[in-house]
Write a structure and sequence with these properties.
- Among the domains are: 73 residues, 434 Repressor (Amino-terminal Domain) (Orthogonal Bundle); 60 residues, Arc Repressor Mutant, subunit A.
- The chain has 14 helices and no strands.
- Helix 6 crosses helix 7 and helix 7 crosses helix 8.
Length: 283
């Protein structure tokens, strides 16, 4: 059996074989020096978590597959439930991903009700008819934006957390990945805020929301349980601790994102770290 790093490099080579451009073009699309890509493929350097996430995006695969050989592999981050995953379409191409990326960004930055199909079409340089082919109704844009956020979070967590053996350090890194820092994480928070609002008004969204949130909760709970097995966390109910921690993250994240005076990412981080230390870490 190949070592994990060797197997990952082999799967990256498989992604490269399916890429329509050259290896140099792939490196350019990653924003990576081609020499660094070559060194990573030969084992002279390791792929960083950010690089693995970008490779997964370009190759239309998951980070879980790149690292563990299966989309369904049991790993440090809970696998999204089926209703929280995008259904695979026959003949799916990069066009769907381009539309989804554009819709996700526009909804995050402008708000779901302010985004028109024509806006997405303009951002993609295509026609409204093409958007309607992939998303027959505008409501589908929000649904798929949530699925997109769930998959992005899963990929990022697998890439960032899989090599951290100590559960305490892994939980702190997981906390970092929930902070609404400017950029992709802040946009994901914006999507979640809008989904929470729509879900409160539209019961038909609740199954997808529940399944999506369950993945996040389970990741936190299993990390806490592993920390208890390692002897670094107290023996309190991991489910209850996960409920408390996720509720604290949600509340603080909303306050930061909505600009409440005195709330910042730095203060949010400090409060969450203090909670973990006070309520979880074995003294």
């Amino acid at each position: 059996m190949l070592h994990t790093a060797d197997a990952t490099r082999q799967r990256v080579r498989e992604v490269l074989r399916g890429y329509p451009g050259s290896q140099r073009a792939f490196a350019d699309a990653m924003g990576l020096d081609p020499t660094k890509l070559s060194k990573s493929l030969t084992g002279a350097r390791r792929f960083t978590p950010a690089e693995l996430t970008r490779i997964a995006e370009l190759g239309n695969v998951t980070v879980n597959w790149l690292i563990n050989g299966s989309d369904e592999a049991d790993t440090v981050s809970a696998v999204p439930q089926r209703s929280a995953r995008r259904p695979v379409r026959d003949g799916d191409t990069g066009r769907y991903r381009q539309i989804l990326d554009a819709a996700w960004r526009l909804i995050a930055e402008r708000g779901y009700h302010a985004v028109r199909v024509s806006d997405v079409a303009e951002a993609c340089g295509t026609s409204a008819a093409t958007i309607h082919y992939h998303f027959p109704g505008r409501d589908g844009l929000l649904t798929e934006a949530l699925r997109h956020s769930v998959q992005q979070a899963f990929d990022r967590q697998v890439a960032e957390l899989h090599s951290i053996e100590d559960a305490h350090q892994r939980l702190l890194r997981l906390v970092e990945l929930q902070l609404p820092t400017p950029g992709a994480l802040q946009r994901e928070w914006s999507i979640w805020l809008q989904v929470w609002n729509e879900t409160a008004l539209r019961p038909e969204l609740r199954v997808l929301h529940t399944d999506s949130y369950a993945r996040y909760h389970e990741t936190v709970a299993r990390t806490i349980a592993e920390g208890q097995a390692q002897g670094v966390f107290t023996d309190a109910d991991p489910e209850e601790l996960a409920v408390s921690l996720t509720a604290l993250i949600d509340g603080l994240g909303i306050q930061v994102l909505t600009g409440r005076p005195g709330r910042s990412v730095e203060r949010m981080r400090r409060i969450l770290y203090d909670f973990v230390q006070r309520e979880m870490v074995r003294s």
